[in-house]
Amino acid sequence: MGVTRHPLFDDGHLSGVPADRAAIRRVRASLAWLLAQKTDVIGLFYAVLFVRHPELRGMFPGDLGDVKCRMRAALALCVARLHAPETLAEELGRLGRLHVARGVRPEHYPVACDCLIEAMHRTSGSEWSAELEHDWRETLRVICDAMLRACNGEDSTR
Ligand code: HEM
Question: What's 21-151's CATH class?
């Protein structure tokens, strides 16, 4: 069908993909719900990451407070703009290049995504579903692709 953009990022000019708008709504509702819980999902994410991959801890500052805040804000921004991804290209490009400077390699991204999904799953309890996991995996894949694309010297503004 000649669709060249990620379906989650349907901007309204493509037709026949109503499920994608629903997916965006689900991801937005999920993040709002997660961030309103007592359990700090982002704190849990880093805890899971460092238990599973202790070798990555040294990349981060001792005090994770700022990193957690920025990660929270970045996720909120990306999810808010899922319908208009072109507005994220510059910010995700900057973020991707910053990660390269910190020693983050492409193979770290799927590792971090798995840990974030696990933290979300554990925080969500019975609110979690296979559909939501799929929605989140697609969302994170698109975010990571945009971060990595900028590092590969590809045009991140398209
Ligand atoms: C979904 C993908 C990711 C997102 C949205 C994300 C988000 C962020 C944000 C917003 C910051 C703060 C940037 C700033 O200071 O302006 C950050 C910092 C950082 N992230 Fe990520 N990140 C992602 C993946 C990863 C991965 C895969 C790693 C590898 C382990 C990683 C390691 C780091 C490190 C080392 C820092 C810098 C900490 C510091 O020195 O302040 N991130 N990340």
Answer: mainly alpha
Q: How far is CA 29 from the centre of its chain?
A: 15
Domain regions of the chain by residue span:
21-151
What does the pLDDT look like over 44-65, one tens digit per residue?
A: 999 999 999 999 999 999 999 9
User: Structure tokens of 35?
Assistant: 């961030």
- If you take atom 34 of ligand 1, which residue's CA is the nearest one? 60
Mean pLDDT, residues 63-90 taken together: 95
Average the pLDDT over 29-41 and give the result: 97
Indicate the top mutation candidate among 71, 78, 79 to test ligand 1's pocket, ranked by most ligand atoms within 8 A of CB: 71
Mean pLDDT of the chain: 88
Centre of ligand 1 to C-alpha 137, Å, is 17
Q: Is 102 in the pocket of ligand 1 (CB under 6 A)?
A: yes
